[in-house]
Amino acid sequence: MAPGGKYYSSTDKNPLTINDIKLENLCAVTEYARDYGVYTNAGETAGLAFNKEDYKVDPSASRKIESKYYRTREQFKADNPEVSDLGASKLQGFKEMIFQYLIFLLL
Question: Which residues contact 41 (CB under 8 A, 6 or more apart)?
């Protein structure tokens, strides 16, 4: 429905059963979008071109995480020297899974 096909028509609610909607109304909306959702300049780029150079991250610009709840493996080992390094890789894997899950929840 936009130059270059950037948009599409959709409803904001999904019916649970076919009895939840009036089929005539759904057909009317779909036909309207089909008939009037066209542009004479189809295929042209919509908006500005994406430039990857504008989204470079400078790792030195980010600050270190400072939290009483988060400690690196080295900090933990310094406070608890009796802990073995046997499960360090497994613990790191768990930490990464938890981080990925939290990012998933945020996005």
Answer: 3
